[in-house]
Specification:
It is built from 10 helices and 11 strands. It has about 300 residues and is an alpha+beta fold. It has 3 domains: about 90 residues, Helix Hairpins, CATH 1.10.287.110; about 70 residues, HSP40/DNAj peptide-binding domain (Sandwich), CATH 2.60.260.20; about 100 residues, HSP40/DNAj peptide-binding domain (Sandwich), CATH 2.60.260.20. A 4-stranded mixed β-sheet has the order 6-7-11-10. It has a 3-stranded mixed β-sheet with strand order 1-5-4. The radius of gyration is 35 Å and the shape is rod-shaped.
Length: about 300
């Protein structure tokens, strides 16, 4: 004999439709095998009983038919010689209907996402969307900036060519629709979520869509001015250093930063110059500055 659906859902016979719905939603989240794969066969069987109970109590007409004794806990007509087959058959009509008949679609949409609504309407049984799967993909700095095609190996061994868009950021997650775990029943497959890890670059750093670069210059270049060659993500360019440039000054190279996919403009490259003294200070340089210091009162700390 099938279990009493009220007892299976843990609600009293006078429970409201909202109470029944809430009880089913709570149990479905606790027991569904795709959400709780480690719970074992016993939990899966209990989930089937809970789903069967909600088939009866989740539909007002079927619930009334059960309460009147016209259908049993499996939703099948009871043979009642006093009421006749016609009434019993009428009361039990539609028991084998899909999820849309008794509200499963809305509940599975709440629990598993909107994709479960379409999958659950199959007449042969409900379907549940497959789980999303996660991967981590390491790429080089310039691959992240310029975009690249990388090969990802799926759990089953299949290879997938992933188009990494230009401007992808460190820890950004790319979603591959339908490349996750297979769904159950008529449910669609989940997605593959690929987290991008960008390896650091020896020279460049990134801040939003801007590229940061430190460039060493000599003492004479800082004092007298110069043209120095600096690296960019698109190749090397000439940067003019004005006469009297202090260490730490930042120069902006417009449009030499990251042009992320979908954006109209690229970021900039910010070049910070650092004055680097010679490894050895020879006598002539030391003498020059000794003489210069005696003749010039210059103290940047007391401006």
């Amino acid at each position: 004999m099938a279990d009493d659906p009220y007892a299976t859902l843990g609600v009293p016979r006078g429970a409201s439709e909202d109470d029944i719905r809430r009880a089913y939603r709570k149990l479905a989240k606790e027991l569904h095998p795709d959400l709780n794969p480690a719970n074992g066969t016993a939990t899966e069987e209990r989930f089937k009983k809970v789903s069967s109970a909600y088939q009866i109590l989740g539909d007002p007409e079927k619930r009334r038919a059960f309460d009147r004794g016209e259908i049993d806990a499996r939703g099948e007509p009871r043979r009642d010689p006093f009421r006749g087959h016609a009434r019993g058959a009428r009361a039990g009509a539609g028991v084998g209907g899909g999820f849309e008949d008794y509200g499963f679609a809305d509940i599975f949409s709440d629990i598993f996402g909107a994709g479960a609504r379409g999958a659950g309407s199959a007449r042969s049984g409900f379907g549940v969307r497959g789980n999303d799967v996660r991967y981590t993909l390491d790429i080089d700095f310039l691959e992240a900036v310029k975009g690249a095609t990388k090969r990802v190996t799926m759990p089953g061994g299949a290879a997938l060519d992933l188009a990494v868009p230009a401007g992808v950021a460190d820890n950004q997650v790319l979603r591959l629709k339908g490349k996750g775990a297979r769904g159950s029943g008529a449910g669609e497959a989940g997605d593959a979520l690929v987290e991008i890890r960008v390896r650091p670059h020896a020279q460049f750093k990134r801040e939003g869509d801007d590229i940061l670069l430190d460039v060493p210059i000599t003492l004479d270049e800082a004092v007298l001015g110069a043209k120095v060659e600096v690296a960019t993500i698109d190749g090397r360019v000439q940067l003019t250093i004005p006469k009297g440039t202090s260490s730490g000054r930042v120069f902006r190279l417009k449009g030499k930063g990251v042009k992320a996919a979908g954006k109209m403009e690229a970021g900039d490259q910010l070049v910070t110059v650092r004055i680097v003294l010679p490894d050895v200070i020879d006598d002539s340089l030391a003498y020059f500055f000794s003489e210069w210091r005696q003749k010039n009162r210059y103290d940047p700390g007391r401006k």
